[in-house]
Design brief:
Helix content is 41%, strand content 18%. It has 101 residues and is an alpha+beta fold. The two termini are 20 Å apart.
């Protein structure tokens, strides 16, 4: 389990969904855990710290946005869902990386 695997899982899950869809961080943790050893795969919660670190990196790069109940969140605090960033993010001047897949 690596941060790179978490980042890839997040971007892959978003690429599989409609552009306006969001994903739960636990979905990424389940995908990361599924590619790990059997004892880790059985407890996807063990992957959550790595997923949170991947979320923080992708957010800092402008590759994703965090949302909760229709509101954009500036940082990962409390419950959140992960959304695609627009192709060009005027808030922070970043461009989103190309979709994986």
């Amino acid at each position: 389990m690596t941060i790179d695997a978490a980042r890839a899982a997040i971007l892959d899950l978003l690429a599989e969904r409609q552009p306006e869809a969001t994903i739960c961080p636990s979905e990424a943790a389940r995908r990361v855990a599924a590619g790990s050893s059997p004892e880790i795969a059985a407890d996807w919660r063990a992957a959550m710290p790595i997923v949170h670190a991947g979320v923080d990196q992708l957010l800092a790069q402008g590759a994703i946005r965090l949302r909760w109940k229709g509101q954009t969140l500036p940082a990962r605090t409390g419950p959140y869902r992960i959304a695609r960033a627009p192709e060009s993010d005027p808030e922070n001047g970043h461009s989103a990386p190309p979709a994986r897949g």
